[in-house]
Specification:
about 25% strand; about 325 residues; 3-stranded antiparallel sheet
Length: about 325
């Protein structure tokens, strides 16, 4: 038998959600069967899979020991040398400037050298995260950006801040603004673009329409709204500050390309053969600014605070000389 005592970072979860993290090797079918057959109990009493755990509860697991072996791949951050550009950190959150070319989460091609991997390594080595003391919580990202996009990403250092950040992102009380360089000079110096987007998940590609197409089901269409303001123009390139009213996959890249202004260096939504010859390896897009609002009990102290990327770290600004980002 193994006994798990519920900590502050574990509390507030359904039993089945907690166990899926604490004992990831246990199939869901076994989890549900074990609850029914009383091989999993809470406080030594029969329980339900939807029971909400409280700090101090004990979970008794009458299961085989091999289910509790640690996944070496998920523990790889212990030996990783962290490489992070930290913009802000306190006891609850960490804000990093992710470089272009790094993925935020593991995928089939990379499981270690990821932003969350480097964050876990940094917090582990600094003593802010003890994986041996945690049963279900690991530091997690509250927002994400594409591999070849740079910019600000928020990580939660405890479960309470993660829940609050997830709520704030869902309710869009954290305002995010982007900077990008596009081909051409927009006719309007400031505008709000509207359109409709469909996503091909297999190809990881979206298509933008100005009007709803008759041959696409309404349920497959997502309304998109993108605001932009031209900050500078030089050599048939324009620097834009962009506010996403809606936040869809590849929205900035696809929406601007659909109106004739693809991003510099964008190989997916632009024709960038000449861009590559000029040495542009990534799309000229950075998640530049975060303005916090709507914080609750845990993060209200961040309300009104604005975090930005150091302009010196935005590679495509050099195309425009001295320019105000305001």
């Amino acid at each position: 038998m193994k006994i798990l005592t519920i900590s502050k970072n574990d509390a507030g979860q359904r039993l089945d959600k907690f166990l899926s993290k604490a004992v990831p090797a246990m199939p869901k079918s076994l989890l549900y069967k074990s609850v029914r057959t009383k091989k999993i109990k809470v406080n030594r009493k029969r329980t339900e899979q939807g029971y909400i755990l409280a700090e101090g509860d004990t979970v008794q697991l009458f299961l085989n020991d091999d289910l509790f072996a640690k996944d070496a791949e998920k523990e790889a951050f212990r030996t990783l040398k962290p490489r992070l550009k930290i913009v802000y950190e306190d006891e609850n959150v960490l804000i990093c400037n992710k470089p272009a070319g790094m993925i935020v989460h593991p995928d089939e091609g990379e499981s270690v050298n990821t932003l969350i991997g480097h964050i876990c390594a940094y917090l582990y080595q600094s003593g802010a995260f003890d994986p041996d003391a945690e049963q279900s919580f690991v530091p997690a990202l509250a927002n994400r950006i594409d591999r070849n996009t740079s910019g600000l990403v928020i990580a939660a250092k405890n479960a309470a801040s993660l829940r609050e950040l997830n709520r704030m992102v869902k309710e869009r009380t954290i305002k995010k603004e982007y900077l990008c360089a596009v081909h051409g000079i927009p006719e309007k110096k400031e505008a709000t673009l509207t359109g409709y987007l469909t996503k091909d998940a297999d190809a990881n590609l979206v298509t933008v329409y100005r009007e709803p197409p008759a041959n696409v089901r309404k349920s497959d269409l997502k309304t998109i709204v993108t605001k932009y303001r031209v900050l500078a123009s030089e050599n048939d390139l324009s620097l834009l500050r962009v506010d996403l009213v809606t936040g869809r996959t590849h929205q900035i890249r696809a929406h601007l390309a659909s109106v004739g202004h693809p991003l510099l260096g964008d190989g997916k939504y632009g024709v960038n053969r000449e861009d590559k010859k000029m040495g542009y390896a990534f799309q000229a897009l950075t998640a530049y600014s975060l303005t916090f609002g709507g914080g609750g009990e845990t993060l209200s102290y961040l309300d009104g605070k604005v975090f930005t990327v150091d302009p010196k770290e935005i590679w495509f600004l050099s195309e425009f000389g001295e320019v105000s980002l305001l």
